[in-house]
Amino acid sequence: MAERVVITGLGVCAPNGIGLDAFGEAMASGKSGIRFISELKQLEFGCQIAGEPLLTDNRINRYFTPLQLRGLNATGIIYGVLAGTDAWNDAGLPKADAETPDWDSGILFGTGTLGVAKFREAIHLIDNKEVRRLGSTTVIQTMASGISAYLGGILGCGNQVTTNSSACTTGTEGILMGYERIASGKAKRMLVGSCSDSGPYVWAGFDAMRILPRNYNENPENASRPMSATAAGFVPGSGAGALVLESLESAQERGGKIYAEVLGGAVNSGGQRGNGSMTAPNSEAVQRCIIEAVRNSGIKNSDIDTINGHLTATAKDALEIENWSRALDRSGPNFPYINSFKGLFGHCLAAAGSIECVASVLQFEKNQIFGNVNVEDLHPEIEEQVDRIKIPLKTIDYTPKILAKASFGFGDVNACVIFKRFID
């Protein structure tokens, strides 16, 4: 019999809040983390706004030793270590002692690109024939598994320590991978999450594709408009989210706090066939992913009362709503409550799924559904499918019972995870 899997720790480093308390308050109050970035103006970007965590040296110094900080400029690693360490501490788990790893605990922490600024620095030195000045941390800051390696050493985890990378689907996919390892009895605990670097070298490609909003540089908080008729593209973001997954037996044995239960989920790809492409999801695959997630979780479509969508503030938002409606066979007033958090901190790329999963789970803790910002002008095609009351503009008092969270990424890859309010 498969182990039941619960969430016992949360950590977050987001554009609108660093740490659970600040982030939770920002989500409940609708505080935005999207700001004007002067560097993007200097570089003549069309979109000169972004969601970027505001970190101080004092905060960073609490998580790294002076040796670890030497030459460290991979922002994704910094965000991930903050979120991952906070989640571990929130779960009340100790670090392994100096001699023996914690054989029962592992890490699966994903990323899209990592150490882009470090790559740039290294390329400059190499081109100027100064290879010897690269330093000893260049490799670990630029390898994809650098973030899991940092966290693995800090926490002393001796089970599987690895990374995953599936574009915008990375964080949600990683939760399911960690869930499966625990459910199969191969680990008692898995720290899962994802991170994304920040800065112009990460965001430039999207600006060149002209899929970012260009008319909100003087009004950044209104720029990200998921499900809106005036949505003009996604606002780039960065940061990290982290969750401690644990077997129910282990959590109860040590008296750990339980935020929610992970019932299951599904991962698939549309193969870039049909209406799917490198940048757009295949609708049939999206619907199959949701249907399979429901089936794997042992629930009925009607059990889902809340959805946190991918919903990036592009022309595809209405299609995503249609896919949810078809997959769940629900519409109008029978449609679940649905929200998108990208209106508050933008699209955090590889970190999107994990940050949004942290926010989704916090709704169980707070007995609330966080509001959708910048959607006063609901897209008419969405209004045809969903009753407006199911898309709250502000946070409402409501106790979610079963929540579906999905991410759909570049490369036509999909993931859907089902969370449940924990009942022993």
UniProtKB/TrEMBL annotation:
Biological-process GO terms, alphabetical: fatty acid biosynthetic process
One matching Pfam family: Ketoacyl-synt_C
Listed GO MF terms: 3-oxoacyl-[acyl-carrier-protein] synthase activity
Keywords linked to the UniProt accession: Acyltransferase, Cytoplasm, Transferase
PROSITE patterns in the record: KS3_2
Localization terms from the record: Cytoplasm
Gene3D superfamilies named in the record: 3.40.47.10
EC number of this enzyme: 2.3.1.41
Catalytic activity: a fatty acyl-[ACP] + malonyl-[ACP] + H(+) = a 3-oxoacyl-[ACP] + holo-[ACP] + CO2; (3Z)-decenoyl-[ACP] + malonyl-[ACP] + H(+) = 3-oxo-(5Z)-dodecenoyl-[ACP] + holo-[ACP] + CO2
Top-level taxon in the UniProt lineage: Bacteria
GO cellular component: cytosol
Record flagged with keyword Hydrolase: no
InterPro entries from the UniProt entry: Beta-ketoacyl_synthase, Ketoacyl_synth_C, Ketoacyl_synth_N, PKS_Beta-ketoAc_synthase_dom, Thiolase-like
Location of the Ketosynthase family 3 (KS3) domain: 2-421
PANTHER family xref list: 3-OXOACYL-[ACYL-CARRIER-PROTEIN] SYNTHASE 1, POLYKETIDE SYNTHASE-RELATED
Subunit structure: Homodimer.
Family, per entry: Belongs to the thiolase-like superfamily. Beta-ketoacyl-ACP synthases family.
Name the UniProt record assigns to this protein: 3-oxoacyl-[acyl-carrier-protein] synthase 1
Phylogenetic classification of the source organism: Bacteria, Pseudomonadati, Bacteroidota, Flavobacteriia, Flavobacteriales
